[in-house]
Amino acid sequence: MLAFSLMLVVPLQAGAAQAASVLAQNSVDLKRAVEIARQAFGGEVVKAEEVTRSGQRLFQIRLVNNGRVRDVLVDATSGEILNP
Where do the PepSY domain residues begin and end (predicted)? Predict the structure, then answer.
């Protein structure tokens, strides 16, 4: 019975490790989110922070370009810009 239980635990742990690895590869940090926003819109970053909206982890980047202020939301998982 013990051997059977161990066989069930090992694949679950391996699956969790794979899922964590995939998540880490697809995850964006604040520095990368700032780079994404600057590449897309240019300007100077005056504020950057992590926020949660509707359970979704995002980065809000505030840029100033030619006197205009723009807030950019970057998805923390995919790096996708959610609003221009």
Answer: 29-83
Task: Output phi, psi for 78, to 5 deg.
Answer: -100, -20
Q: How many domains would you assign to the chain? A: 1
Identify the CATH number of the domain in which residue 9 sits.
Answer: 3.10.450.40
8 A C-beta contact, residue 17 and residue 25: no
For 6-62, the pLDDT digits (tens) are 344 444 444 444 544 444 455 899 999 999 999 999 999 999 999 999 999 999 999
Q: Look up the domain containing 60 and give its range.
A: 2-83
| Alpha helix positions (H), 1-84 | 2-26, 30-41
SS3 assignment, position 57: strand
The C-alpha atoms of residue 59 and residue 6 are separated, in whole angstroms, by: 41
d(CA 16, CA 30) in angstroms, rounded, equals 25
End-to-end alpha carbon distance in the chain: 58
